[in-house]
Sequence to fold (308 residues):
Amino acid sequence: MAIGLMLLLGGLAFYVGWAGALREGVWSPIPDFAEVRIPAPDLEQSQESRPPAPSLSGEAQARPEAGPRPAPSPERPAPPRALVSVVIDDCGQDFERERGFLEFEDPLTLAVLPHLPDSSRLAGEATLKGRTVLLHLPMEAFGGRDPGPGTLRADMDDEELARAVRENFQAVPGIRGVNNHQGSQGTTDLRLVQAVLEEASSRGLFVLDSRTTAATVLAQRARGMGLRVLSRDLFLDNEDEVEQILLEIDRLAELALRQGHAVALAHPRAATLEALRRGLPRLKQAGVAVVGLEELFEATPIGTDPEH
Fold:
């Protein structure tokens, strides 16, 4: 009986202590395994805090480092203030001497005499280089001077004149126009002039009046027939000296700037070649561009001006 009383008192003490521990939160029973729950992740919060995934398109990728800046485009050269054509007359006599005039960067125009040993060769070479080639047509001069093979003379009958004109035009390949060689008498003879211009018209050629005489009717008649026509403004090498030719080149620049364009004649001489080598850069510095005679017609509204 005493033993039973003791066991009863010990169990009562254990129960009182266990109940107090539960109330104070010091100890709690272990729950069953089925009651354990893992909290689900907050999807919205995880998406916001997650770094953005790289995009497959180039737009959303990180910006590449900037490369070197492209060089600024070069400024366009100022357009020329005026145009000139320089025509080298009397070509076809000496190929080796005359070919030097084809080596310039600036396109000189070559006027080639017919029926000479180097006429066809030089005209062909000039055409290959893109230069304008003229028939330098011999016409009768005052004072009994002989202009050379193929000269048109006032004493020719109509049939002889027509044949001579045709043969002259056929003798120089690749021509784009015609100008007179000498002709101080021939260019005042309306019959000779008419024969030349009819042939030029049939071939679609332009005309340059060399103006070897103030009495010439070549330009006036050509204009009346509706042909493209220009007249020579000055000769560069009446004096066969480099310094004098350079002075004439300066005059050419002044004239071109005053009227917008100009045409100069020169000859295939050593002094002329040297003067052009030194003088053509002066034209560029003055704002004057050298163009072939055909390009001068195409670039400017000229050819019907009574003064030119």
